[in-house]
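User: Show me a protein chain along with its predicted structure.
Assistant: Here is one chain, sequence first, then structure tokens.
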Amino acid sequence: MSSFLSAIDIGLRALLYTKFYDLLDLDNINTGVVFYPREIAPRKVAEKRGEATSEFINVWRVKTGSLDWRRQTTAIARRGVSVGYTDVSETDGNQIKAIATSLEYNIWFWSKKVENLNLVAERFLFWQHSDPNLNLSYLDEYPLELDLHFTDLLDESDISNQYLTDPHYIMRGTITLDGWVFTVPTSVKAIHSIHLTVYDKDDLTETAEYEEIIVEDSNQDTELAETLKLYTRVETF
């Protein structure tokens, strides 16, 4: 079973290829955008292409498991999501629980030309301005829009070694993604209707049975408690 975190990684990788492939003359996502840290990315790309090269993108997730308490108070996090019935009689359904997590990725852009990275930087800025998100779907059916947040682009070019090795320029940015992780769907009983009957106390006979709902509070409001008394409660599931 694949994790949803892996799906997010692959989705972000594909999004980066779509956004920047033409500026770095990339013709294949598998050799153009790799999921490795900076230290080994050039070698991995060279192995994939069969030659040393400096035109590529590498991305690596550097922070995982940070619970996003702001989004954890939303309905999807508190109650979960109903994802359809498991039988034709619609008596059983599938329910999933979701946890909001903040994921952080470092992205490196590599090129032999400074001008190529200037073009990447301009597009990166316009991308931030367009309310960016990563569009995925859970179970191939339920759409998700995962918001993206950006930091500044930083130059990490190794200029001092340009006369010892092939010249290359490197620019790094960071994307923080508002992600979700999900549990495996679990079967739950579907509630189709709830019938509640409430009677006024004054209309009841002396022999009628009833149940009182009492407000538990250190600062008990007796008048409020009286109004919340329910009599002859009937529920049908």
